[in-house]
Amino acid sequence: MIGREILNYRMEKVIGEGGMGTVYKASHTKIPNRIAAIKVLKSNFLNNDNLKNRFRREMEIMANMSHENIIKLEQFDEDDMGMYLIMEYFEGLEIDDYLKSVIGIFPEEKAKPVMIQILRALDFAHKQGIVHRDIKPSNILINSDGTKIKILDFGIAKMKDDMSMQTKSGAQIGTVFYMSPEQVLGKELDARSDIYALGITFYQMLTGLNPYFDLNTEYEVYNKITKEDLADPREIYPGISEDMVNILKKALAKDPANRFETCADFISALKGEVHIEPIAAASSVASSNSTKNETKSSFYITLFLAAAALLCFFNPDLYFLSMLFSCGSVVYAILSNKRDPQSEKTKLYLSFSALIISVVFSIFLYQFADADNDGVLDREDNCVDIWGPPQNNGCPVN
User: Fold this and answer.
1) Residue 385 lies in a domain
2) What's the CA gap between 382 and 179, in Å, rounded?
3) 3, 202, 204, 357: least buried by Cβ within 10 Å?
């Protein structure tokens, strides 16, 4: 494609490549110093009507976008050789490349104005009824001095009420590391899904690392997204303020109802116009139900062990049975803890506490047992003969 002319633009070099298309830098052949970025649908997709329709939809969406922080569509062309989006050219780096090669991490005061620009662009899109669905650092360009950004790639964006882009049940659209919990679960998405993805992007900007960088499989990432809370970003970079952590937690709430309702709300928090209260670590519905089950299970085990101890109180002769029940319950708790150590810690601690109470109580009550039922407590009985043949210790022999 290098050297080819499309609508008076000559392709000069490749500047980006994605799943659907390749982006070229191109110069206008008749207007000096006029440069464009041309996105070309990959040739192996030209016979795929679904992908061609998606490419056209990207054109339709971008045609309605006029915002200083969104890459502008200038022209669209299609012929037997391909499909082409001719777009505004913006000299900059993708944010993930900018992190790696220029800045390392964004200090808060530098991150805030960048995030506000991104949020304003997304807020504009959301008000047009458009959900991007693939917000990530590689879809955000930033100039060399870090003062200007542009969002690109609305290839999988969904327009409100566009039935052709309704997500099928169980479908996952987006890039794994930046998916919201509802996106992973294939649920219907709204603006709050973009806010979650932007929260992950913001986390990466402030720490230099994606929060899932140490996971090896998609299954682990999906499980973490839907069931587990992200590590406090201060574990990676301690310089992040408490206010910023609270903002991140709200943006990354598992339940969309607990996130910022709109990008404008997110902006207000970054500007300090509203105070975000510290919130407990977010959990998914499944995780919440699991916690309830663990609490109930821990309660029953503790109750069982306490009952075993009380059994001795009502009949001291059963102290041995009480100790057996106690030890059996703790063995069960240990095995449960090995199966799922994080979620079963409470159960283990409660079980050991109850064991100590039960065993100590059982040993104490042993002193009051009457093993041979002769009406004399063992601690005062020199003739206890239940554990073996009668001893010649002055006790009567039958």
Assistant:
1) no
2) 75
3) 3
Per the structure, how many domains does the chain have?
A: 3
Other beta carbons within 10 Å of 36: 20
153 part of the active site: no
Name residues whose C-beta falls within 8 Å of residue 237's C-beta, 6 or more positions apart in sequence: 105, 206, 207, 208
pTM: 0.66
- What are 98's two structure tokens? 């900018």
Output the CA torsion sign for 240, 242, 244, 246: positive
CATH code for the domain of 107: 1.10.510.10
Largest CA distance in the chain: 124
Is the model's pLDDT at 246 over the cut of 90? yes
Q: Which residue has the higher pLDDT, 396 or 66?
A: 66
- Considering only CA atoms, which of 181, 185, 176 is closest in space to residue 218? 176
Rounded CA-CA distance 277/281 in Å is 12
Catalytic residue among 123, 134, 194, 265: 134
Strand partners, 299: none
Mean pLDDT for 57-65 is 82
3-state secondary structure (DSSP) of residue 316: helix
C-alpha span between 82 and 312 (Å, rounded): 85
